[in-house]
Amino acid sequence: MSHAGLIEDYGLIGDLQTAALVSRHGCIDWLCFPRFDSAACFAALLGTAEHGHWTIRPAGPFSSPGRRYRGDSLVLETELETDGGAVRLVDFMPPRGQAPDVVRIVEGVRGRVEMTMDLAIRFDYGRTIPWVRRVDGVRLAVAGPDALRIDTPVELEGRDFHTLARFTVGAGDRVPFVVTWFPSHERVPDPVDVEAALRDTEGFWTDWAGTCTHAGRWHDAVHRSLITLKALTYAPTGGIVAAATTSLPEALGGVRNWDYRYCWLRDATLTLLSFLRAGYVEEARAWRDWFLRAIAGGPRDLGIMYGLAGERRLPELELDWLPGYEGSRPVRIGNGAHGQRQLDVYGEIGDALYQARLAGIEPSEDAWRMNSLLLDFLEHGWREPDQGIWEVRGPRRHFTHSKVMAWVAFDRAARAVERFGRDGPADRWRALREEIHREVCREGWHAERGSFVQYYGGDRLDASLLLIPLVGFLPAADERVVGTVAAIRRELLRDGLVERYRADEENVAVDGLPPGEGTFLPCSFWLAEVLALQGRTAEATDLFERLLGLRNDLGLLSEEYDVARGRLVGNFPQAFTHLALVDAAYTLAEGRATRC
Fold this sequence. Notes:
Elements: E1 10-14, E2 19-23, E3 27-32, E4 40-42, E5 53-58, E6 63-69, E7 76-82, E8 85-92, E9 101-120, H1 123-126, E10 131-135, E11 138-143, E12 146-151, E13 157-159, E14 162-170, E15 174-183, H2 194-210, H3 219-231, E16 233-234, E17 239-240, E18 263-264, H4 265-277, H5 281-294, E19 305-306, E20 317-318, E21 332-333, H6 344-358, H7 365-381, H8 400-420, H9 426-443, E22 445-446, E23 451-452, H10 467-470, H11 479-491, E24 493-494, E25 497-498, H12 508-511, E26 519-520, H13 521-533, H14 537-548, E27 560-562, E28 567-569, H15 575-590
Antiparallel strand pairs: 1-2, 2-3, 3-4, 3-5, 5-9, 6-7, 7-8, 8-9, 9-14, 9-15, 10-11, 11-12, 12-15, 13-14, 16-17, 18-19, 20-21, 22-23, 24-25, 26-27, 27-28
Helix pairs in contact: 3-15, 4-5, 4-6, 4-15, 6-7, 6-8, 7-8, 8-9, 13-14, 13-15, 14-15
């Protein structure tokens, strides 16, 4: 029987190296140690309770009337009530020291509540049951390379490969539980000072959030999204993962289940821009350093995604022992798209480096030299077909969005020479920029439809075309943009939200996958931005606020939304969605595209 709750029922805690998902009922159903992309030790999210979870809850019937993050932090508080009293469950992960920890504190709020704890450790994505024993008075769980230290003042017992406890909490009591991961061949780490860790964790996040320069409308939503993006940053290298999970389905029961625990160049560069707009320059510097390490090599070999430390080989595997979230199979780890050609990333990189310079980041000769080498390849490479922004698994095509972003790459390079005095063949780059512009307006335009189309020679629409005015390729008021927006609203809206494209039977030839998926939430944020740029402020605001209403009670969003079921779907929380929220908030407030 499935153990997982609704995707929107989860909150995120993390330590800037990995993250856990906590349900509103006190269950940690997903956690990978020691990195975001490590094997999970709690994988009930993608299976059953026997695939690993950590549950702390009242022993009898209870309700969960509310939960919240403590201020501008990643300390999660969940209220649990029974007829006899109430407790508050405080969950957090201290910013990483030597070893990763999950700390859980049960606070007595009123009355007396009998509580239970069920710790089912299952290493290797639910497949391996560890050997749990006491060593020098410390309870340890060990299997192969992984080990956990388990600390609590509560008496524990082992039964049927679960570690269990039963205890009572009165008003004012504070009962801590700590799980600490370490390599099984190394010495056992020291115990955690729980109260000091709580103060340090809250202080870290409060201090970080306090440097945000955003002070406009929708500040709380922007703030929470920025905190979420920071939580998806792998601090040791500066890499930014696309999401904390793998294989949460884009359509319930379907096969569009992908591993997003890696660093997509596109997502990472766009996250960088969101950070820069809010005044977070250190994150920009860290990303630039990560980027230069990751892409070192030949320009033709530029990947679309990398591992947290810049790893290039991310082989895709299927875990056949996991039944998947609500029966959505296969469950995948790794991502076969890592070997794809996606030309738009060249534009994203060039734009990110240019915008970083505009924001006052000091110039980097290494970054400029690398960007120039990428442009040397792109001078010819932009003419090639690719798999496009949506990583289709069908044949390569000349996707319109990819060509637009090739235009961005040359546009930003020419502007860097003009504005910052960079050394480079600006005349040649300007000529290429104009050549691409002419070709896109000729080959990507469908006169009968009165709109741009997904790929040259086709007649299908694609929401990525909404980016044309947002990156400055054409003004939002241009009649071709107006026609494209009208066509997208006419054909790609489902209950007012935007599909990436029609994932129907005809589309199988394009993306190589069966029909069906939710509405991709960043696309709706793009539409709100374009409407704002066209002066349709009321429509833009209505759409933006509707999207804000899809967030869960903690302000978190996944990749997609199932309009028929009224549920979040896809990996969670999704960086692309949260950065699109931040960008849209700025565009609506300022009345201009922040990337032009």
